[in-house]
């Protein structure tokens, strides 16, 4: 089976464990395709997280370079046991972020990109509630935050055209009961149309259950809209260490069955996309996640 979004404590300070141990756990669980996708480096000191107070943006750049080199070694080392694809997860924080991303992708060849938005107007929205509330105040409230989030996502989609769109509705993390207004739905429809227009995949991300949400990202109302518009889906555990690999894939299996998802996709190193049938009775699902 598939996961296309992961992190390790070796290269991400809010994760745990070594990158190779993430790979070994994926092999142990029977993953056929596993994506290694550490965060792209942030360029400004003010964008560092609290656990990064002892490092600099230059350190992040060196860490990312080391990640790609190690990931390529692991890709070759375990080629006979698992298909590893090497990528990165985007940031979109300030006016130059996407320019920096384009420069990075030209200098560091990657198999794919996970297109994610974690900030609105420079404020992180998934680190903790207090920072989420700062973002709300910065833009004028919850409704404005939702609209600004999907606008930032749209800009990222147009510029980057990521192979995989990460946690599409992350903005709901701390406001899961916020009713989506007509204006927000208009932006969601626009963003979905952008994804289908360039042929991107949307991850169904199981980490949402660790955060206490009802569904995986995207939540079922948006997922159904995506299905109607012909979006192609992939899967992600968004693991943050070996112990997270395959996290909540039992719930994910049931979610796929419930939402009638029958086909999954994943990117190849040559930028093409391969599809597979989702079989809930496959040994991957029945032997590990009973």
Automatic annotation (TrEMBL):
GO cellular component, one term: cytoplasm
The entry's keywords: Amino-acid biosynthesis, Histidine biosynthesis, Hydrolase
Enzyme Commission no: 3.1.3.15
UniProt-listed GO biological process terms: L-histidine biosynthetic process
Catalysis performed (reactions): L-histidinol phosphate + H2O = L-histidinol + phosphate
MF GO annotations: histidinol-phosphatase activity
Pathway: Amino-acid biosynthesis; L-histidine biosynthesis; L-histidine from 5-phospho-alpha-D-ribose 1-diphosphate: step 8/9
The PHP domain, residue ranges: 4-206
Stored InterPro entries: Histidinol_P_phosphatase_HisJ (IPR010140), PHP_dom (IPR004013), Pol/histidinol_Pase-like (IPR016195)
Family affiliation: Belongs to the PHP hydrolase family. HisK subfamily.
Protein name, UniProt field: Histidinol-phosphatase
Species assigned in the record: Spizellomyces punctatus (strain DAOM BR117)
UniProt lineage: Eukaryota, Fungi, Fungi incertae sedis, Chytridiomycota, Chytridiomycota incertae sedis
């Amino acid at each position: 089976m598939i996961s296309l979004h992961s992190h390790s404590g070796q290269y991400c300070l809010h994760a745990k464990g070594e990158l190779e141990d993430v790979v070994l756990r994926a092999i142990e669980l029977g993953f056929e395709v596993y994506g290694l996708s550490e965060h792209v480096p942030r360029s400004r000191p003010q964008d560092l997280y609290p656990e990064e107070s002892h490092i600099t943006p230059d350190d992040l750049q060196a860490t990312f370079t080391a990640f790609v080199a190690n990931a390529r070694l692991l890709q070759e080392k375990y080629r006979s046991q698992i298909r590893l694809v090497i990528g990165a997860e985007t940031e979109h924080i300030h006016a130059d972020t996407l320019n920096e991303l384009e420069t990075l992708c030209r200098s560091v060849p990657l198999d794919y990109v996970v297109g994610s938005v974690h900030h609105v107007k420079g404020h992180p929205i998934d680190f903790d509630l207090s920072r989420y509330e700062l973002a709300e105040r910065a833009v004028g409230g919850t409704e404005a935050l939702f609209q600004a989030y999907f606008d930032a996502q749209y800009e990222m989609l147009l510029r980057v055209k990521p192979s995989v769109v990460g946690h599409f509705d992350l903005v709901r993390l701390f406001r899961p009961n916020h009713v989506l207004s007509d204006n927000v739905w208009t932006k969601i429809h626009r963003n979905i149309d952008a994804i289908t227009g360039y042929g991107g995949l949307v991850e169904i991300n199981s980490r949402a259950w660790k955060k206490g949400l009802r569904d995986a990202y995207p939540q079922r109302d948006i997922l159904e809209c995506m299905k109607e518009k012909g979006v192609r889906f992939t899967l992600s555990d968004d693991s943050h260490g070996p112990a997270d690999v395959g996290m909540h894939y039992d719930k994910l299996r049931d979610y796929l069955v419930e939402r009638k998802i029958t086909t999954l996709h994943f990117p190849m190193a040559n930028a093409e996309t391969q599809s597979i049938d989702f079989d809930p009775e496959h040994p991957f699902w029945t032997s590990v996640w009973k």
